Amino acid sequence: GSFSSDEVIRKRLLIDGDGAGDDRRINLLVKSFIKWCNSGSQEEGYTQYQRMLSTLSQCEFSMGKTLLVYDMNLREMENYEKIYKDIENSIAAAHEKISECKKQILQAKRIRKNRQEYDALAKVIQHHPDRHETLK
User: Fold this and answer.
1) Does 127 reside within a domain?
2) Closest Cα to residue 32, out of 17, 21, 22, 46?
């Protein structure tokens, strides 16, 4: 029909959850149940009953494993959120430090410019005689 093999595989994976064979186990359980309902002898019925219990415990184990993985993923997400916030805070702190440094640079440039002007004035002044010489 119009179903491509990719779509079939995708559908099977969706039904199967994490690919652990859950749909196969459930189908097996249904078949076992039907066999158990139709079993003739008590011995055959008991065997089917044991098979169903085994399949059920496999399903429960798989479900437990899936829940554990889910919880772990949630904790990992929380952990990543915390790391992300820490990084954001570090970036903000770095930006503050940069702007503070820029202010300090501007101040240092201003002081340097003043010193240069002061030195230039001092040189000009040194060329003229001091007050004592002038009064003489």
Assistant:
1) no
2) 46
> What is the per-residue pLDDT across 109-123, written as a single tens digit (0 to 9) for each?
999 999 999 999 999
Could you tell me the residue range of the domain that residue 50 belongs to? 5-95
How far is Cα 83 from Cα 16, in angstroms, rounded to an integer?
33
Query: What number of other Cβ atoms are within 10 A of residue 117's Cβ?
Result: 10
User: How does 1-30 read in b/e, with b if 16+ C-beta sit within 10 Å?
Assistant: eeeeeeeeeeeeeeeeeeebebeebeebbe
**Contact predicate 66/16, CB 8 Å:** no
Domain-located, residue 34? yes
Global confidence as pTM: 0.49
Contact criterion met (CB below 8 Å) for 17 and 66 = yes
The answer as to whether 130 is a domain residue is: no
Exposure of 82 by Cβ count < 10 A (0-12 exposed, 13-18 middle, 19+ buried)? exposed
Residue 101 maps to a domain? no
Q: How many domains does the chain have?
A: 1
